Each structure stands twice: as structure tokens, then as C-alpha cells.
Amino acid sequence: MTVLRRRDALILLAAMAAAPRALAAEDYPSRPVRIIAPFGAGGPTDVFSRIVADELQRALHQAFVIENRPGAGTTIGTDVVAHSAPDGYTLLMCRPRNASTKRCFRTNTTS
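Now predict its structure.
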């Protein structure tokens, strides 16, 4: 019984030691976020992207920039996002049918 209590106390101490680090974590987003819309400017996806970006800017107090990268059936814009740093500062705005294509999930689209 004392082993269980000692273990619980160690777990609690470890959680308390980690808490200040978690609270001091960087707030997201700390810099502007890019939203890649792989469609032409002025289309429905572009308009929807701008509405979403505007709401995100108001809620998170940070700039959300829309970049239109049309072409090759959304492959060009999707490729930009797939090869960006995995830090959450480059987002893809696409339609559901585009999200289910294999080019969104593979880095090699030749196969």
C-alpha cells in the first residue's frame, strides 16, 4: 500500500514540476499564419477562405494571410503545404473531395 502512495506522490510531484513549463509555452499563433487556397482568386473557396481568415484574425489577434496557388487540379497549392515546415503556420484550405485524394497524403505523387 505504501508503494502505491509513494508512486502517486512521485507522479504528482512530476506533474507539478512540469506545470510551469506548460504554462510558459508559446501562445499560438505568435506570427502570421499562411492559408494556401489552391484555387483561383474570386472563386467560392477563395471567398470562404477569406471569411475564415477574418474570423481567425479576430479570435486569435494575429494575421492570417491567404495565398492563392491555383493549378494542376490543386496539386501546386497542396504541394506547397506538404513541403512547408510542420509548425502549424501554413494551412491548406481545400474542398472535401480534394482532401481525400492521395496527393494530400503522399510526398511522391508520381506513383
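Residues 46 and 79 are 18 Å apart (CA to CA).
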